[in-house]
Design brief:
Layout: H1 2-19, H2 21-27, E1 32-38, H3 57-64, E2 67-73, H4 79-88, H5 92-95, E3 101-102, H6 110-121, H7 129-135, E4 139-144, E5 158-159, H8 184-196, E6 200-205, H9 217-220, H10 230-255, E7 262-268, H11 291-294, E8 295-301, E9 309-311, E10 315-316, H12 320-327, H13 342-347, E11 355-361, E12 364-365, E13 375-382, E14 385-390, E15 409-412, H14 428-441
Parallel strand pairs: 1-6, 1-7, 2-9, 2-10, 3-12, 4-5, 4-6
Antiparallel strand pairs: 2-8, 7-8, 11-13, 13-14, 14-15
Helix pairs in contact: 1-2
């Protein structure tokens, strides 16, 4: 009797789908995908990550509904190469956007224009994520930070950034007003996607909490009395302002009845530790291979499909591309270094990988074809152990971010998350083992280890 009831239910469902095309469409509908990308924020600067002062109620709520990786990482702690890694699924030494700009010490006047054009042309060598999604029926909108020319060059169907060679086409130009000056362009895009009945990809990467730290008084006044430094108070207020705009994006999707069929992906492009005595960032944060530069919480929210989980494993932003390919039933390119996390998200399956890698190059690129010329660090994390190796790349900017430390640096991140005690001399065999992993991952031709 029990089997017959199940069989009958299946027959009824088949008839319902045949008789009701709208149900068929709903059953096969592709999910909307929304990237919420923070710009210059420390991995601990959220309520859900335990910060004692900063309030992030909207991201807290989303994180509670998410598959949350608190040990997430970006493979490089600088915005342009980090974003390029995110949308290509590759390391900087593969996609060759290793810094934010060509070096003015090397490329001058007319050569600089050619160098900028060549650096941007790397985006054409890859099936970047927006292109992939558009080829599979999506509308795609870019707002906020974007370096690789105009939004069209990145494969987006809609967007805000004009990009090089337009005047002021760096960083994201017109796109940088999103969030700080409202969300009209994002709202209009979602209206259009609904009208055309198409799934959408929303790349929301506002210039927040990035400098200038000029938060509205309603946020700043919350922190003035909680910390002694006005610089710190302003930064904390910027984080909350960013959180508020994320809440506005999520609420807009909820109002449209789309949340259950929308995947939210959250992370930050690189870290930031605010100095107390100036508006600048502290060492071992932005641009640094240390935790303060590379670590970020990363989470996926798909309310209609994936149950909330707090995952203990390591994750890298390079996993986002293959995961979304897997979600959409697309072949995952065999050369991608990241892995699909769909099984972990859907079923709670343990992730077998326990090792991830990253690199650090100078801010400015001195050789557009050879990333080793500005290679400053390579790093590997295996379980709770992290090894940093310093190299002799040319430092062209932000010297304070890249202290030249001779010899290996080995840290136990579980016992020493702030990387204060170098344990390399006490663990020579482990250093040797992790060195071998680094060399297998990144084959050095001529860079000198320090």
């Amino acid at each position: 009797m029990f089997k017959r009831n199940i069989f009958s239910a299946e027959i009824l469902l088949i008839f319902a789908l045949l008789l009701c095309p709208s149900l068929q469409a709903e059953a096969s509908k592709q999910p909307n995908i929304v990237f919420l990308l923070s710009d210059d924020q420390s991995y601990g600067d959220y309520s859900f990550m335990g910060h004692e002062h900063i309030k992030t109620p909207h991201l807290d709520k989303l994180a509670k509904e998410s598959v949350l990786f608190k040990r997430g990482y970006v493979p490089v702690a600088l915005c342009r190469p980090s974003i390029m890694s995110m949308v290509t699924g590759h390391y900087p030494h593969t996609h060759l956007v290793t810094g934010n700009d060509p070096s003015r010490d090397i490329y001058k006047n007319e050569d600089m224009a050619k160098a900028k054009a060549k650096l941007i042309s790397n985006v054409d060598r890859f099936k970047v994520l927006p292109k992939l999604l558009v080829e599979n029926g999506y509308l795609a909108h870019q707002s906020g930070k974007w370096w690789e020319g105009s939004y069209k060059r990145g494969g987006f169907t809609h967007g805000m950034t004009r990009g090089f060679p337009e005047k002021g086409g760096r960083h994201g130009d017109d796109g940088l007003k999103i969030g700080r000056d409202g969300l009209k362009e994002v709202e209009d895009f979602m209206d259009l996607a609904q009208k055309e009945e198409k799934p959408f990809f929303l790349f929301y990467a506002p210039f927040l909490p990035h400098t200038p730290h000029n938060p509205p008084d309603e946020y700043l006044n919350k922190y003035k009395d909680k910390v002694e430094s006005l610089h710190v108070a302003k930064y904390y207020a910027m984080v909350e302002w960013f959180d508020e705009t994320c809440g506005q994006v999520v609420n807009s999707i909820e109002r449209r009845g789309l949340k259950d069929n929308t995947i939210f992906v959250y992370l930050t492009d690189n870290g930031w530790i605010q100095r107390e005595d100036s508006k600048a960032y502290a060492p071992r944060s932005k641009q640094s291979a240390n935790e303060g530069g590379t670590r970020t919480p990363i989470f996926f929210t798909w309310a209609g499909k994936w149950k909330a989980q707090d995952r203990p494993e390591l994750m890298t932003s390079l996993d986002i591309y293959p995961t979304l390919c897997d979600v959409l039933g697309l072949d995952i390119p065999s050369d991608l270094p990241g892995i699909s996390l769909v099984s972990a998200c859907e079923k709670g399956t343990p992730i077998k990988r326990n090792t991830i890698f990253g690199e650090s190059n100078a801010h400015d690129v001195v050789d557009l074809d050879d990333p080793e010329k500005t290679l400053l660090y390579r790093w590997v994390i295996q379980g709770n152990w992290k090894l940093l190796r310093s190299y002799d790349g040319i430092i062209t900017k932000y010297h304070s971010s890249h202290p030249k430390i001779v010899g290996p640096q080995l840290f136990n991140l579980k016992k020493d998350p702030n990387e204060n005690k170098n344990l390399a001399s006490e663990n020579p065999e482990l250093v040797k083992k992790l060195d071998a992993k680094l060399n297998d991952w990144y084959k050095l031709k001529h860079a000198k280890v320090l």
